[in-house]
User: Fold this.
Amino acid sequence: MNASIDTAHIQALDSAHFLHPFTDFKDLQGRGARVISHADGIYVWDSEGHRILDGMSGLWCVNAGYGRRELADAAHQQMMTLPYYNSFFQTTNVPAVQLAAKLASLAPDVGDRSFQHVFYSSSGSESNDSNVRMVRRYWDLLGQPQRKVIISRLNAYHGSTMAGASLGGMSGMHAQGDLPIPNITHIGQPYFFENGLPGESAEEFGVRAAGWLEEKILSVGPDKVAAFIAEPVQGAGGVIIPPDSYWPEIQRIVDKYGILLISDEVICAFGRLGHWFGYEKFGYKPDLVTFAKAITSGYIPLGGVMVGNRVAKVLIEQGGEFNHGYTYSGHPVACAVGLANVALMEREQLPQRVHGDIGAYFAQRFAELNEHPLVTAAETCGFVAGMVLIKDKRAGTRFAEQDAVGMVCRAHCFGSGLVMRAVGDRMIIAPPLTMSRADIDEMMRLIYLALDLTHAELR
Ligand code: PLP
Assistant:
């Protein structure tokens, strides 16, 4: 129990005043929100004293784990030196410059798409709005203003602003607020478990799923398409890991029609897939890379877009003033924390750990879940993982929506002291990259516990 927090009082104030994101407001009037009081390493604690292993790294962002003093020190020092100044009107600040140069040095060169420039925001959503504006500006400047359409994927998540939610392919979000905005359209996701045909291999499916992009380009009209946006691995949609054949075929198609490729790496960058950037894992060549979340390990809001040379050259040489920006673009404190976080990740070799031994151990242990009677299609990509909870494994029968199997399992995870997320009948996890083998063993023990309880409840 955290003696300094009066849980009932905070919960009452919470439901009286705080409109939570992605929450049915009425739910919190009854049972009250869980009050998270503090955190350390891979654990968070609630105000009633429960210790919970944070298998989701907050919201896919606390890659370096909790309690990292050097990140707090970097913020404190920068606040005492220069807490804020804007980067409009031909002014700049040292941490923003240093971080932009650092990111440019970390992003591997991919020919004419090499990344030398960064546009800053404070979140993934804002960054994707910036992408829409930059992409349309790029084609305007090239004398092709009719190229406005951005193609995305169903079940993608690209944020909650009007453009972000429109780029995303979440039907529940589109149903609220007249979305998508014009000139955004969607294709299917490369989800082999759900969309593979009988007798079709994963690799055949990957090529077929990429082909939906070509079909869409042809139906929209190739001269009207500005860009394709996608996450390397679809995260919030349920950790949809594409077959290896998918990205090379996507690359072939975007190259064939000359359209821009936007890699939304708000989840997949900064070590999550075992590389600094997610596109390295799959070997494709984006023009723009969206980042946020783990650039600061979530300690302070910061986002942005890595702008490849193909786009940057046109914006810089032909663009004149770009009428777009945020008060907090290049915020000195956020950038100072970003620099400290990248330094920490380099020193502790977090991307390399995920790429190497520790990632392999996680993959091996997670794949063992396929032996559990409730589980199929358990797989990892770096430090993201997903599995399907299945009703009858032998017959291949899935749970009905009203069984709410994911929510049942999620509740048992919480009860067992583990955060895992449910997306329909999929359970997903994205733990901090600092995990030891012993931590992975403990996480697996908790997963098995929650699965056994779920199995017993639904039998
Ligand atoms: N893009 C992706 C791939 C995301 O996963 C998210 C958030 O989860 C966003 C964009 C939106 O980021 P933010 O919540 O910082 O606006």
Observations:
- Residues 59, 123-125, 128, 157-159, 231, 235-236, 264, 266-267, 292, 303 surround pyridoxal-5'-phosphate (CB under 6 Å).
